[in-house]
Amino acid sequence: MATNPPPTIETPDLEELADPEIWLSRLESVWEWLRSEMVSIAFGVQAGAIVIGILLAFALRKPVGNLLQRLFSLGFLRRVRADAVRLLAPVLGPALSWVFLSAVLFTLQQLEMEIFWVRLAANLVGAWAVIRLLTGFIAEPFWSRTAAIMSWTIAAMNILGWLGPTTGFLDSLGVGVGGGRVSIMSAIQALVLLVILYWLASRMAAILSARINKLPSLNPSARLLIGKSVQVTLLATAILLALSSLGIPLGALAIFSGAVGLGIGFGLQKIFSNLVSGVILLLDRSIKPGDVITLEETYGRVNSLGMRFASVITRDGMEHLIPNEEFITTKVINWSFSDHAVRIKRMIGVDYTTDLPTAMELAVEASKTVPRVLNSPAPKCLLRGFGDNSIDLEIRFWIADPGQGVNNVSSEVLLAIWKAFTENGVNFPFPQRDIHFKGGDPVSVRIQRD
Question: Which one is the CATH code of 287-334: 2.60.120.430, 2.160.20.60, 3.40.50.170, 2.30.30.60?
Answer without folding.
Answer: 2.30.30.60
